[in-house]
Amino acid sequence: MQTVSRSAAAGGMGRPITPTDIKNWNSVRQSALSNDGKWFAYTIGATEGDLTLVLRSTAPGAVETRIPVGATGGSIGISGDSKWMGYLITPNRPPVGGAGRGGRGGGGGGRAGSAADTAATPTPIPSRLVLMNLASGEKKEFNGIRRFSFNSDDKPTWVVMQAGGGAPAGGGGGGRGGPIDLFGATGGGGAAGGNSDLMLYNLATGERQNMGQLAQYDFNDSGEWLAYTMDNTEQFGNALQIRNMNTGAIKSLESEDVLYRHLSWTDSSRALSVMKGRVTNVGGQRDTVFSVKVFRGIGPNGAASSMTFTPEGRTDFPNNFKLASERAPRYSADMSMVFFGMREMPKRVAGAGRGSPLVTPGAPGMGGTINQTAGGRGGAADSTPSLILWHPKDERLQSQQIVQEAADRAFNYQVGYRFADNKFVRLTDDSLRNVSIIASDKFAYASDNKPYAQQALSSGRNYSDVYVVDLKTGARKLLWKKRPSTNGIGQASPDGKKALFFGSDGHYWVLDLATFDSVNVSKKAPVSFVNTDDDHNNIWPLPIASRGWTKDGSAVILSDNWDLWKVPIAATSPAVNLTVDGRKNQVRYRQLYNWGSGESPVAGGGGRGGRGGGGGAAAGVDLSKPLYIGTYGEWTKKEGVSRVDPNTTGAKTILFEDARFGIQKARDADKFVFTKQTFVDYPNFYASGGDFKDATQLTDVNPQIKELAWSSGTRLINYTSDKGDKLQGALYLPANFDPKKKYPMLVTIYEKRSQNKNGFVNPSETQTPNARMYTSNGYIVFDPDI
After folding, report:
1. Can you give the pLDDT at residue 176?
2. CATH code of the domain made up of 427-658
3. Are 111 and 36 in contact (CB under 8 A)?
4. Of 15, 63, 93, 588, which one is least surrounded by beta carbons within 10 A?
């Protein structure tokens, strides 16, 4: 049986799309919403054109300000107090036949900023920073600036600017972000002598201060303190200093002839960590040996205390190992430990450095050898044979080893050091190489797939032995033997003491990580949390992904693929259906937006973990605030947002339309900016209040759409398979569709595709099959579910 559901709206009845239209097709490269919700900025550009920055108020009828920003400009950053906007301007794209313009740029940045960067090009492109007062429109320009940031995400008082080179290909502006390495990377790496001038600009007074050539810098959370390192050629005069941004006072924490790397503040604490490297020459082999130094209680007089961990002279540190410069050190959440990495010292290879090609062993675990030249991997002549060996006992296929070569070479063992009792703690070794530290830094998960890796090459089934590691002692305890990788490991509670996991019995369990006591929390729920929509051939039942813990850790939020349930971890308490009507109305309540709590938009996300990676506390879902949930109509393909209020059940529909949405909330206001798209409507940006009514259109990215033959809309075809399954197909109509005529039809078949009905498809000659190009040229396109 077949039925047809008609969709609204028809688009573009003009001429077919041409290659020139594709070349001139615009896209939004970056967007930024001010924290007060009053300002919206974005960069726009054609596939082969320069970029334009557009700034406007989110109020109805506002006038746009359009600013050309060159080939790779933009990098928009709006200050946390919504008073200032910074952006970069670069030279225009070279004429056809000229030098390439590098990356497309414009991505990243925004309020949170980005510390990402690209490697320096041989001929840097000069760029300049423009700082705009959003209230008055007054601008201040700074030449030769390649990236910038504000010193605080809340109420910034300074802008910090990095000089030299061209604008970074992605981001380069915004909030405080993470630690910046002026060698051109985030948090580490590089070599001495790669410094860059750093300039400070006071937003209130206009005062400028050139800090000179620095290597790395990082602001603490409040923006009150700036820490930075100076790295000079031959390490003479290298130093780690701090600057009080309120008083301008500078204090040197130390000055030594060493390399400083991975400078970073801890979260919400006046404590710093950094790596120190000394160049050694043992047996004619040059190497850099690192130590870790931490500072605590930083104030006007410097640091109240400091501690250095160095392997030399320690009996508990393994021989022939050194600290790994690839892994940034990180304080534990309670400040009792510091985590870092170690790796084997390089082995001197006979004949190295003599200018002749040689074959050297591959990285640990690669199971092969690699042909190299004196200059490294890339310089061998075409006539030089390459040698790649694979042994049938290798745990990974040859192709996988090649892809993972860089990761293998950078591998290091995660370790820790406990301050109170001067204890070195080894968290990983050759028998257990993979460790993931969980919330609050009390425990970690460790997994080992080596016993099953070879069998997985032929069976396709991946298993792991899973352990819990006590971070205080390094002690391990086996949690699961031969656990399917498809079922994950476990989701830690906000305090890091418990873990939610899915068992082989098709139920969710909560495990006490200290005692290993566990309780089945879902057995009394009136629904199943097994993902019956996934038809992969697995040994264990697959779970529907948890939506996270509640903020107080008393319950977890689970989905039955229709409704969301609050499931207490106390087995005596019943599960509560928060949304109530999902299964009844065939509406799926999907992702969580924790807008009501002022925290991460997706509840249950991890903290920053000291900006050194890993750790951090899971925020949890705050049920004392309104809970916003993304919705999807299974048979209508409508999408939207619903709200569950505190201490109640039942979701209230706020937005539900035959379209697809991408939603962002202003941090400090009940103001939303969202994209809305269908197959015929480009995903332009709109602004509204919390009710999503009377939205104001903010962008018209591709106004030329009205000139093009686009599509006469979409239809949903309902049918039943020969197995009795209810299915649908999305039918995309050609422009100028006449139901009395016959048209050629393209059918694309792959599992389920009808959910893409409201997805806008950009025209392309290289992505095939491209539904837009077919409907523009008189074809019907049909995507049936199977």
Report:
1. 61
2. 2.120.10
3. no
4. 63
- What is the H or E stretch that residue 455 is in? helix 450-459
Cα–Cα distance between 35 and 84 in angstroms, integer? 11
Place of tokens 């205080």: 472
Cα–Cα distance, 593 to 598 (Å, whole number): 10
pLDDT: is 740 or 213 the higher one?
Answer: 740
d(CA 608, CA 665): 20
**Residue 692 in contact with residue 641, Cβ under 8 Å?**
yes
Amino acid at 416: G
Q: What are the backbone dihedrals phi and psi of residue 400, each rounded to the nearest 5 degrees, phi first?
A: -70, -40
Q: Are 35 and 752 in contact (CB under 8 A)?
A: no
Contact 430, 479 (CB under 8 A): no
Q: Whole-angstrom Cα distance, residue 492 to residue 512?
A: 10
Please name the residues in contact with 198: beta carbons below 8 A apart, sequence gap of 6 or more.
160, 161, 162, 163, 182, 210, 211, 212, 213, 214, 217, 228
Neighbours of 546 (CB within 10 A): 20
In this prediction, residue 362 carries a pLDDT of 46
pLDDT digits (tens, 9 = 90+) for 15-34: 999 999 999 999 999 999 99
Where along the chain do its domains lie?
2-15+705-784, 427-658
pLDDT at 213 over 90: no
Q: Could you tell me whether strands 745-747 and 780-784 are parallel, antiparallel, or unpaired per DSSP bridges?
A: parallel
Q: How far apart are CA 196 and CA 190, in angstroms?
A: 12
To 5 degrees, how large is the angle CA 189–CA 192–CA 198?
A: 85
DSSP 3-state of 771: helix
Under 8 Å between Cβ of 173 and 88: yes
Nearest-5° Cα angle at 753, 603 to 771: 115
316-350, pLDDT tens digit by residue? 999 999 999 999 999 999 999 999 999 998 776 55
- Reference 412, options 401, 428, 398, 424; nearest CA is 428
Residue range 372-412, pLDDT digits in tens: 444 444 444 556 677 777 788 888 888 888 888 888 888 99
How far apart (Å, rounded) are the C-alpha atoms in residues 356 and 249?
54
Cα 26 from Cα 522, distance rounded (Å):
49
In angstroms, the CA 700 to CA 63 distance is 13
For residue 691, pLDDT over 90 is answered with yes
**Averaging pLDDT over each range in 380-384, 458-462, 620-624, which range is the top one?**
620-624
Task: Retrieve residue 445's tokens.
Answer: 């998960």
Q: To the nearest whole number, what is the mean pLDDT of the chain? A: 85
Question: How much is the pTM?
Answer: 0.85
For residues 579 and 561, what is the distance between their CA atoms, to the nearest angstrom? 12
d(CA 79, CA 93) in angstroms, rounded, equals 29
What spatial distance separates the first Cα and last Cα of the chain, rounded to whole Å? 15
Q: Is the CB of residue 220 less than 8 Å from the CB of residue 240? A: no
The span from the CA of 472 to the CA of 700, in Å, is 56
Instruction: Catalogue the E-assigned strands of 345-404.
Output: 358-361, 369-372
3-state secondary structure of 81: coil
Sequence-ordered strand ranges (E) for 621-752: 627-633, 639-644, 652-657, 660-665, 671-677, 684-689, 696-697, 709-711, 714-720, 726-732, 745-747
Local structure of 452: helix, strand or coil: helix
**In whole angstroms, what is the distance from residue 381 CA to residue 670 CA?**
62
Contact 674, 688 (CB under 8 A): yes
pLDDT at residue 5, as a whole number: 55
| Short-list 505, 387, 401, CA closest to 453 | 401
Residues 6 or more apart whose Cβ sits within 8 Å of residue 701: 26, 27, 28, 44, 682, 684
By residue count, the chain amounts to: 786
The amino acid that residue 154 corresponds to is D
Cβ(276)–Cβ(289) below 8 Å = no
Average pLDDT estimate for 81-103: 78
- CB-count exposure of residue 476 (10 Å: 0-12, 13-18, 19+): middle
